[in-house]
Amino acid sequence: MRRPPARRRKPSAGGTLVYCTAYATTPALWRARFRTWVDAVQEGLGADQILIVDDGSPMLPGWADTRLSSGAGTGDAENLGRPGGVMLHHFSDRLGRSSNLDFPGWYRSFAFGAIYGAAHGFDRVMHIESDAFLISDRSKSFFRDFADGWAALWCGKYNFPESALQVAAGAGVASMRDFASLPYEERLAGRDHEQVLPLTHVERGFAGDRWGENAEAIPPDADYVAQVQSQREPSYYWWLKRAGGLRAPRGEGPGRVDLDFGAAGNATQFLVDGWGGQEPDLRWMLAYQSVLSLPPLEFAGAYALRMTALPHVAGARLPHQRVLVNMNGTTLDEFVLSGATTVGCSVPARLLKRDGTDRLRLIHPDAQQPSALDPANGDRRRLSLALMRLSMVPEDGV
Fold it and tell me: What is the mean pLDDT of residues 66-71?
């Protein structure tokens, strides 16, 4: 068995590193999942450095507060600087996964963060995956105050340590590095990752689990949660000051637009084409596309567009609805909805006219007549998605 190569000692700089692994294919996923994670880490963990390690994503976010670096292997971890703030390291190739028990891409990213933490003298390294969150003050205090060893929280659902929430400190930082320095094939290939980590402590005293897999809401007394799905509505993240990964608008909203598509709402005057009749809490989008005329926009920069919608689905016969978001002729993003949710994307400043003539086109190619799917249903409208709310929020540095 190969041993870790000898390393020159570096002076200790102290402090806390928090890192996660990453892979994303759209701007929306970078914002919904990874920017939300960054915002969460910045609330109460005392991070001196936040690190996202990316497994060859085809595109990267252009966040103003994030330094980008790139390379091909874990050896680069020792040569990078320690800039503080947020850093995203991108591997030029993707290793991905080949089966349910074979995650070479994840392991390389995980190893990179562990080696980086030890090489740059951090006295505490927290590995918190992008779909996992420490919620309560006491769980955050446990991670902040952990002094020596390598610990993880507990996943009761599957009866093993929760690998998405780990902390190493003191001698544990070197232990994590030594583990990460061994070849993937010798450590994790074909094995349950959670069972292999040489942890010195598993903390079972907190309320939490992989509720994100199927829970519609996180309990108010939760200490932590894992496996949170990528595109949840802002209210799902009730414990975050900046819910949903979007920075708060300046003030309560110079430039902010909120449209309510319910009967008591304000959206009717902005409907142009492709809309159904008014219903108590929503309006259906019909046929191939639906068009909105936006009111004048006061903010001069980019906007975050967010929509809460309910798709028309019918089991295996119609499992989802696609929607493409197009602003003034430019397609911004595409979403696939199988249940009620909130989705969003960024609208670059250069695309907006702001004078009341901006046109938002929502293209939905999967619209179907309910009567065609169920002969007992007399509804012949070609339904796609029902829109409940839409907002345009000035982006502030994200």
Answer: 89
